[in-house]
Design brief:
The chain is mostly beta strands. The protein folds into 3 domains: about 130 residues, no CATH class; about 80 residues, no CATH class; about 120 residues, Spermadhesin, CUB domain (Jelly Rolls, Sandwich), CATH 2.60.120. Helices cover about 5% and strands about 40% of the residues. The strands form 5 sheets. Strands 2-1-3-8-5-6-4 form a 7-stranded mixed sheet, with helices on both faces. Bound molecules: 2-acetamido-2-deoxy-beta-D-glucopyranose (NAG) (4 copies).
């Protein structure tokens, strides 16, 4: 990061950009546009506005550094910082200038000036109580990348006496799934193992059932992801990419749930419209299967954009057209059960995907 923060030739101007709300007008010599931030779970909705320090000139070996104002939590700042030093500066402009000259990645000024170096680029969509200014070259503007679940960092945490792990998600389709988010109430969620918790802005949690998120394909190791809390157990699940296979579900306890996600990353990544799907996956058990379907696959017109998506049991084809079916539960069905997806996306409209939940019923 240090190498990227070059200050070339005579510094003719030092610019800082501002993100989000809460600027103190007095600190900024030029225009200040206050950004709006819509509420919701997703962290990246703030719009960027600029604050410019026009008049600064600096004698030095480098030219110009653009800083952006970010907010960050104290934890995330500590997580990212590899070095920090106190700089003697009487105002934010001087603080900016001194940290730029010292090749530091970022600075904060709250009466005293602190400069920071980071071990990686910071995401542009962090949030938190601390205000820092980060060199533009040390900010990552792309979406965060996923990492394997086994290597994803987490924090142990406790909510209402229940142990959870907090991971970070690359995204969560909170708009699509807003109807399924409930307010977390430990008494109401009698099977909290089945739920993921999303911290709400302003306190408290929303809870969504695990059927709405293929968590293992959505976690990231960067701190700007959407925080999610999970209890230590996760459901058994399959992904509808084992085309042509028959999966024997081994006998388990009555009432156990087995999930099938339409694609890796259901809940955080859109369904990838491939060239042509001709996929079926069959499930068999020694017992009958109750079945739930939750689909965010069809467009506003109710069609599946060129696909057919259905459910078949042995001996009867397409007992349920999942493109037109309402989300809900079916009575226990004979099995084998086959989920079929065929066709080609016509308009490539946004599709969050779908899940099928199978519940082992009595023999
Ligand atoms: C900053 O980095 C430049 C080269 O990248 C180097 O020449 C200069 O000495 C560094 N300044 C400080 C204060 O470390
Ligand atoms: C900030 O960085 C991004 C990507 O690294 C670049 O596209 C953009 O032009 C930079 N903005 C300024 C003002 O330097
Ligand atoms: C979380 O807690 C478990 C059990 O107490 C422990 O084994 C694990 O190392 C902890 N992980 C972290 C990242 O603190
Ligand atoms: C499932 O796919 C296989 C291989 O493509 C095919 O032989 C079989 O007939 C299909 N079954 C159903 C129920 O569509």
């Amino acid at each position: 990061m240090m190498k990227e923060l070059r200050i070339k030739n005579i510094l003719t101007g030092l610019f800082a950009s501002a993100l989000c709300v809460g600027l103190s007008m007095a600190l900024y010599p030029d225009s200040v546009n206050v950004a709006s931030r819509s509420s919701g779970l997703q962290g990246c909705r703030a719009t960027t506005t600029s604050v410019r320090f026009r008049t600064l000139t600096m004698r030095g070996p480098k030219s110009m550094v653009t800083y952006r104002r970010l907010t960050i939590s104290a934890n995330d700042l500590a997580f990212a910082t590899t070095a920090s030093n106190n700089i003697a500066a009487s105002d934010v402009v001087q603080c900016a200038r001194m940290s730029a000259l010292a090749n530091m990645t970022a600075f904060a000024f709250d009466g005293t000036c602190m400069a920071y170096q980071f071990n990686r680029k910071l995401c542009s969509c962090l949030g938190g109580e601390k205000v820092i200014y980060v060199a533009n070259s040390s900010i990552s503007y792309g979406p965060p990348a996923t990492v394997p679940f086994s290597t994803a960092p987490y924090i142990n945490t406790t909510v209402e006496g229940i142990e959870f792990r907090q991971y970070r998600l690359v995204n969560f389709f909170s708009d699509v799934f807003s109807q399924v988010l409930k307010s977390f109430d430990v008494n109401a969620l009698n099977i909290y193992e089945d739920y993921y918790l999303f911290p709400r802005e302003g306190g408290g949690y929303n809870a969504a059932q695990s059927v709405y998120l293929d968590l293992a394909s959505c976690v990231t190791d960067v701190p700007c992801g959407v925080p999610v809390l999970i209890s230590t157990t996760r459901p058994t699940y399959y992904i509808l990419n084992e085309c042509g296979k028959t999966i024997q579900l081994s006998p388990q306890n009555e009432g156990d749930q087995i999930l099938v996600y339409s694609h890796p990353g259901f809940g955080c990544k859109a369904f990838p419209d491939g060239p042509t799907y001709n996929c079926n996956v069959t499930f068999t058990t020694p017992t009958t299967l109750g079945l739930g379907y939750f689909g965010y696959f069809s467009g506003a017109d109710g069609s599946c954009d060129g696909y057919t998506l259905g459910l078949e049991t042995s001996g009867s084809s397409n007992i349920l057209d999942l493109c037109t079916a309402a989300n809900g539960w079916l009575d226990p069905l004979n099995q084998p059960l086959t989920i079929t997806l065929r066709g080609t996306a016509a308009a490539k409209t946004f599709k969050a995907g779908f899940t099928v939940t199978m519940v082992l019923a009595s023999a």
